[in-house]
Amino acid sequence: MHINLAQWLRLAPSLEPAVLKPGVEGQLIVAVTIPAGGHIESDQPAEKFLIPTKLTLDPIEHISFGPIQYPQATEKRFSWTETVLKVFSSTIQIKVPLIVSRDAPAKTVTIFGTLNYQGCTASSCLPPNNQKFSIEAKILP
Fold first, then answer.
1. Which residues of 95-134 are buried (b: 16+ CB within 10 A; e: fewer)?
2. Which CATH number is associated with domain 5-139?
3. What is this structure's pTM?
4. Closest alpha carbon to 8 in 134, 135, 115
5. 1: exposed, middle or buried (C-beta count within 10 Å: 0-12, 13-18, 19+)?
6. What is the pLDDT of residues 88-122, one digit of tens each?
């Protein structure tokens, strides 16, 4: 069976507030939907050999990003290891605080990011994958 890794996870980025203003804080929220029966390792996996989930954002003029906030992982046991793993499943939200510089002009910019992860089921894992996303952000005075 062929699995399209680019479509294994569904990413839905959004901004709060929807319109950004110079000098005002907001946040980028990336909703990650993991298929039923699947999971991805948390950002802090229980074993060194496991691939952590990691969100990265491309630098963008006039917007600075704060520390990435991952949700709390679920601890789960699997038959192939005695270690209790820390995983994400179902739908999670990864949040990133942001601030628009005070001197930002009114314009529309595109925020680009990548989610690095490894999708797994209870008995097997897919190869590690990097899934890109983007979202337009309107900056208005």
1. bbebbbeeebeeeebebebebebbbbeeeebeeebebebe
2. 2.60.40.1250
3. 0.91
4. 115
5. exposed
6. 999 999 999 999 999 999 999 999 999 999 988 88
